[in-house]
Design brief:
10 strands; alpha+beta; 162 residues; eight-stranded mixed beta sheet; two-stranded antiparallel sheet
Amino acid sequence: MLLTPWRPGIGIFAVYNRRIILLLRDNNPKIAWPNTYSFIGGGIEFGEEAWQTALREWQEEIRHSKALSRDDLVFVGKHHALNRTYYYLELDTAIQGIKEGKSFGYFSLDTMYAQEQAAQKNDSPGIGGTMKTVFMRYPKELHLLLNYGDVGAFNRIPEFQK
């Protein structure tokens, strides 16, 4: 399913050991951002609240021993131009695998830069979707989120105002 600009969606900054978990999407030209690393997340379905979508997408995409509740999600903000609501989730155990996509990885800012540079030189998967926008436009805020859990860093950006 392609996410269109008018269809709202969510992204989860799922962090384990100061690394964000990104999913490597299938290499299918019929999906949005094929063969790229992207957020855990997806489109908000009719009648859902953004937090409900986050819980549903976690359940659909991730294998983890923890069953999430609304209390586990920390609201980061809504990026109005991207029509995406973001949540922060800090994990104390690694995920056991994925249910969707080709694979996953734990990324620091340095490994995201390295992955993106490799993608530009050869056929390696790059960072895609709204994660690429966040990563390229807001590296300082992403650093504060990954290393210090500073969710408020994104609230200082006009596009992320609550």
